[in-house]
Amino acid sequence: TVFNSLNHDMTLAEFKFIWYMEYSHRMWGRVVGLAYILPAAYFWHRGWLSRPLKGCVLALCGLVCFQGLLGWYMVKSGLEEKPDSYDIPRVSQYRLAAHLGSALVLYSASLWTGLSLLLPQHKLPETHQLLRLRQYAHGTTALIFLTALSGAFVAGLDAGLVYNSFPKMGERWIPDDLLAFSPLLRNIFENPTTVQFDHRILGIASVTAVTALYLFSRKIPLPHRTRMAVTSLLAVACVQ
Description:
iron, about 0% strand, oxidoreductase, metal ion binding, about 70% helix, HemeA_Synthase_type2, mainly alpha, 2 domains, COX15/CtaA_fam
């Protein structure tokens, strides 16, 4: 289907290139799965895991397997025949967002678990400012996660090809076809213009939130490790 609709002039060498990219991704995913499951089984057998850590290990291994299942489910959507559609064959943007979201959760949970084991927890006095900083950090995390998921919708719909100017989209701040689909809610997930517009707004909001978090953290006495983490977050947000 893809060959007839889009890549009818592709050579065998060009096909092999994208085939090996997909094959390498699948093999790397399986290596990652083994990197979780085999050490987990060994440590469990040797009795090196505490009861709470066993729960974490089971959850992480389950997430790895779920991630692989989501990957298969996503790719399957791009191979389905759609005789009533003349659109370019592509995977479902919903399944792509789920696959990316699951990967982010897995990575974040793995990092959190690893750092919790490697680094001692700071015992800080629960001041009002510290509580506000923690709440704001959680909100910023959710905003960044939402921004990343919106990027999956941009990729799934090729929405990045619609407008390539910034900060305006073409000649306008708000494009004419922003709400072209009906019902209205469809635009958020299926209208390439709206998807790109939302991703831009969320990206700007994320950088603003990270900057505000950094400035607020400067007013609070924090351990060196925490201050370095907040500064690194701002630096990575600017690079991104």
